[in-house]
UniProtKB/TrEMBL annotation:
Pfam families: ASL_C2 (PF14698), Lyase_1 (PF00206). The lineage of its organism: Bacteria, Pseudomonadati, Pseudomonadota, Gammaproteobacteria, Methylococcales. PANTHER family: ARGININOSUCCINATE LYASE. The keyword Acyltransferase does not apply. PROSITE patterns: FUMARATE_LYASES. This is Argininosuccinate lyase. The gene is argH. It catalyses: 2-(N(omega)-L-arginino)succinate = fumarate + L-arginine.
């Protein structure tokens, strides 16, 4: 079998099923561009070091550029007989330019080649993910700006806790995405290290210049240990962990959007363009985008676990097991980009229903803590104040009134410290305005947080 890799060593052709079973070209052809970039840099370095002639190098670069075009225009014929993206491109290069094509693999192995390709691929995809993250963060900032003084109930245990502003709630989402952004940047530091030159595992006997290749490819430096270079996939796991956190965050946003758009909450409207109807119930408008994103968060976490299990217990250095790193990684990239994009497209069209949020905050005794704080300021110990307010809330529950609707004389039954200035503390507006320290929910504080966030985002 003339197609067989290292065919001279084998007396038998590969079993037909094994050929299909071990091939990865169907999915790793996605890294063709990175494979070509890596090969151009490798050839350039080989020629600068006198390992290839200038003519051979030129022929290689020309051939690879032609292959890049063939792939781009859909004219390239991928073959499972050539196993993976690396062998497919190399075989075509030799078809095109002859003997020089066969010299490209000097001082290199597919082991350092594939590790380099994945790093280049991830580096470029992370910048696309960051772009979508920033689009979503910008949309969140815009909506937060319009709702910096929109009062809603804040929840703990999904029970009304204290009044907050909708803008403040959205800025919590913003912070979550900011950390995601930082995590991706941080993980890039470890992605951006170059494996080429490690060859199969031990390095190469040719007088190569790894610093030059690293510089040509925009890596910060060559990797420090050849065995580690070909067997390390930590960077892929780190990336998938960062992606899992993004998806976990999106699943939480989704859960809230779904609740808020229900008739029971009715805090927001999700535009028709992002919802679908029911095949049987004519009245239905289902929040499909948030639901699907919530569902997709599971598969990304699944990929994280797959990659951890893939690497667990592998002896150094490269093992064929590693070919299994690609599908989970690629699906993680696709899923995260698509979900962020759907969210970034949808967010600008979400309408807050301000009056409904306000009414809901009024109904849940959201200012009970404010009444307790009022009593503390008048000299009562906090635990005693907690008790007094508990009695007042019970009266409110029994008689169907909010705290602000109970008469002064009735409140005074619970404590003589209460006087007619109490009502300014029992309003929702007074409650949020009082929380004006950094990180608090007061409208002016939220507006300042939005300003700072916007500056940091454009500087990023
Ligand atoms: N397709 C292989 C992979 O994805 C490339 C590296 C192959 N190396 C080897 N020694 N078989 O990992």
């Amino acid at each position: 079998n003339s197609d067989k890799l290292s065919s001279a060593r084998f007396a038998q052709a590969t079993n037909a099923f094994v050929e299909v079973f071990t091939a990865s070209v169907d999915f790793d052809k996605r890294m063709a561009e990175q494979d070509i970039q890596g090969s151009i840099a490798h050839a350039t370095m080989l020629s600068a070091c006198g390992i290839l002639t200038g003519q051979e190098c030129d022929a290689i670069i020309e051939g690879l550029s032609r292959i890049r075009q063939e792939i781009g225009s859909g004219q390239f014929t991928w073959s499972i007989k050539q196993e993976d993206v690396h062998m497919n491109i190399e075989a075509r290069l030799t078809d095109l330019i002859g003997i020089a094509g066969k010299k490209l693999h000097t001082g290199r192995s597919r082991n350092d080649q594939v590790a380099t390709d994945i790093r280049l691929y991830l580096r470029s995809e992370i910048s696309h993910i960051s772009d979508q993250l920033i689009r979503l963060q910008t949309a969140i900032l815009n909506l937060a700006e319009q709702t910096a003084d929109t009062i809603m109930p804040g929840f703990t245990h999904l029970q009304v806790a204290q009044p907050i502003t909708f803008g403040h709630h959205l800025m919590a989402w913003f912070e979550m995405l900011n950390r995601d952004h930082e995590r991706l940047q941080d993980c890039c530091k470890r992605i951006n290290i170059m494996p080429l030159g490690a060859a199969a595992l031990a390095g190469t006997s040719y007088p190569i210049n790894r610093f030059m290749t690293a510089e040509l490819l925009g890596f910060s430096r060559p990797s420090a240990n050849s065995l580690d270079s070909v067997s390390d996939r930590d960077f892929a796991i780190e990336f998938t962990a960062a992606a899992s956190l993004i998806m976990m965050h999106l699943s939480r946003f989704s859960e809230e959007l779904i609740l808020w758009s229900s008739a029971q909450f009715d805090f927001i409207d999700i535009p028709d363009a992002f919802c679908t109807g029911s095949s049987i119930m004519p009245q239905k408008k289902n929040p499909d985008v948030p639901e699907l994103v919530r569902g997709k968060s599971g598969r990304v976490t699944g990929h994280l676990v797959s990659l951890l299990m893939l690497m667990k217990s592998q002896p150094l250095a490269y093992n064929k097991d590693n070919q299994e790193d690609k599908e989970p990684l690629f699906d993680t990239v696709d899923t995260v980009i698509n979900c962020l994009r759907a969210y970034a497209d949808m967010m600008p069209h979400i309408t807050p229903k301000k009056a409904n949020m306000y009414t809901s905050a009024k109904r849940g005794f959201a200012t009970a803590t404010d009444l307790a704080d009022y009593l503390v300021r008048k000299g009562m110990a906090f635990r005693d104040a907690h008790e007094v307010v508990g009695l007042a809330v019970r009266l409110g529950v029994d008689t169907g009134r909010d705290l602000s609707e109970i008469a002064l004389t009735e409140l005074q039954q619970f404590s003589s410290l209460i006087s007619d200035d109490v009502f300014e503390y029992l309003t929702l507006e007074g409650s949020v305005a009082a929380r004006s320290h950094i990180g608090g929910t007061a409208p002016d504080t939220v507006r300042a947080a939005i300003d700072t966030a916007r500056k940091n985002l454009t500087d990023a």
